[in-house]
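User: Structure tokens for this complex, please. No commentary.
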Amino acid sequence: MSDATQTSGAPAAQPKASLLVADPRTRKRNAAEARFRAYGLAAIIASLLALVVLLFTIFSGGLGAFRQTYLTIPVTLDAALLDKSGNRDPEEIKKVLTLTYGKILDQSLQAAIEQNGIVIEGLTAKDVSNLISKEASARFRSHVLADPELIGQTIEEPVLVNGRVDGFYKGRVTMESAARDGNTSPAQLQLAEAFREKGMLATKWNWSFLTNPDASDQRPEAAGVGVAILGSLYMMLVVLFLAVPIGTAAAIYLEEFAPKNRLTDIIEVNISNLAAVPSIVFGILGLAAFINFAHLPQSAPIVGGLVLVLMTLPRIIIPARAALKSVPPSIRDAALGVGASRMQSVFHHVLPLATPGILTGVILGLAQALGETAPLLLIGMVAFVKNFPAAPPEGLFDPASALPVQVYNWTQRADPAFMERASGAIIVLLVFLLVMNLFAIFLRRKFERRW
Amino acid sequence: MPVSWTLLIVLAMAVAGFFIGRTRVLAAAGGDSRRLHSRSSYYGWNVALFTAVPALFLTAIWLFAIPDASRVLVAVVSLVLAAAGLAWSLARTSPEFRARIAVEGFVRGFLILCSSIAILTTAGIVFSMLFETGQFFRQYPWQDFFFGTTWSPRFGGGSRLGMVPLLWGTLYISLIALAVSIPIGLFAAIYMSEYATPRMRSIAKPLIEVLAGIPTIVYGLFALTIVGPMLRDYFAQPLGLGSSGSSVMTAGLVMGIMLIPFVSSLSDDIINAVPQSLRDGALAIGSTKSETVRKVVLPAALPGIVGAILLAASRAIGETMIVVLGAGAAASMSLNPFEAMTTITVKIVSQLTGDTDFAAPETLVAFALGLTLFVITLGLNIFALYIVRKYREQYE
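Assistant:
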């Protein structure tokens, strides 16, 4: 103590330091402490805020994709146009082109306007026929083909409305922006408003977003994620059937059997490095190995699945090894003690006990694979795919899309309505991821054992 | 057709072999399974494996190596092989035969095969890229690729494929991303491990980790639709720095958000691994908590934190979707963070999607870029591991 008073010299100026009053230096240190703490809190708040803003913008932008505006008009299915022979033969009816159905819809729309006495200044014929989507006639046709008995009757047909008019009811399009837009006009929106007042036009829940395939540039209102969901599902099946057994087997070998030698070391370093290789590099590998060398088809879920298998393997092996390691040696010793071989002790006792841990890793690995985009771009999954792939196993070789790639695809299109679709597809993706993660948490909580 | 039929016949032979083998050995032992070396099903498995595995293995290798080999020849050879395996293994089946050891040999082989797939993948990555990169450098001088400062690919000849602007964009964006994520992630980790109550920790930590589970395409869309236009309208245009929604700043900021959980959870583990006795010692001589953290805990955790930062950097460099959607496609080398720039990954995507001609240098350059990317990230990862191992303080 005496040394300190001699060297600092400060106590001379402050003969009596009170315990109750903090000296300036203490105050400074306490202030620094408070600041440091505030920085930490601010960092946490900032990251949580980022999460909230991110999710909020995606959800507020994407929920619109799950609602769609339909116009319900009475349509007379003229048998003279749709079924000339009059015998309701489905093969005969199929010969009538979509164009004819489009004309019927146009006429019915015109008739509906006249019947309801809607008069709008400056309404052109183009405005009227563009009120309904270009996809509407094709849907109308498949509706009739599914039920030929409708021909000759007058039915109330819900008709898909143009994306701009749909956007008007979702707040994306206003009267002012419509005036500057070549694809719509204020008069067209007024027409839609008039129909809405009559109760014929309504924005409804849109299941077809989940079941429809992608649609072309001009028809955002008809685009859906059906093919993408199926493609993603197929790829997940490939990953499940290949990556899980291979990954588990590799983990078992490395954890339970591998001798401590050079080769094992190389394998281990390799696996940890592969886990950190950028995903796009796996895409290059897939392109070079599976498409250019093995000549597998482009855009096929099998190729995407194989690339994702290679990517997911290290992410399955690492947690699987941890799960195997957490099984105490006493289990192995007991099995060996009653005469089991090493293989039997592992497969009969250690592996079942490690299964919940392995499964957790598998699900998280799958979840990561599901959201992966970049490698799939390189193997041609960005292509426009309108046809559903067939059932597996043949369907694995048909062209398909994938959810994250579909999102990317839609962001590259000009019509702003596709942005809403992209956000909607992300919501679907996030819901899948949420379910998978919750299942992983459930598994961990329910089956995790502390030894 | 013959291939799938061969497959089915071989599998049927294997199944039959299983039952024949099991019945035979039990009959040979007079129905008394105690006289067998192994349990009876091992004899069945032994026969089944010897029947199916060599035949299927041969078929697979043959068809992979020579895709247009005569299907009939393949089918005949593999059926003969299966029959030979069946006959041989049945002949070996007797109560003294150590069937369990034979079967376990097969299983062991399978396990080793599975673990070597990791090596095969790495080899595949390296060789596929080396091969195509070699093709590229035969058509385009390597000096111009590594040191060229112009990137203007033109299909039809006369392309200039200098990597420097791409590398600059990649590093610039990564730098901004790290400048965002390191302070936030590190402070979040410190607060979480040193100050937060267990209750807050149990809520905030998983929530931050949600950020890590969100696919990068989501961040990309966020950059494209929200962050980009906002930065343009409130910063770039009022300051007269540019009028582009996609910019280095957009991609960097969003990538920074993506990396926060990466930095924070790694640093959190490392900070928690610093022994409590060090903290207690510092607190006992009168340091405040923040002084303890800054003067004792952080220096002790430094190698691990540096390792975590290097890993984050390698992630930032290899990240694709955020930059594809947020950074733009124009290769430029400027210091203005509100200007659109491009990165190695963006150019790999743009050169390899759409109609590609695998003889043109404009396509092959993507493989050279990929190899460069692979080498950079691999180097960073190895360096990170090296630092962590070399400078790790050994307590206890």
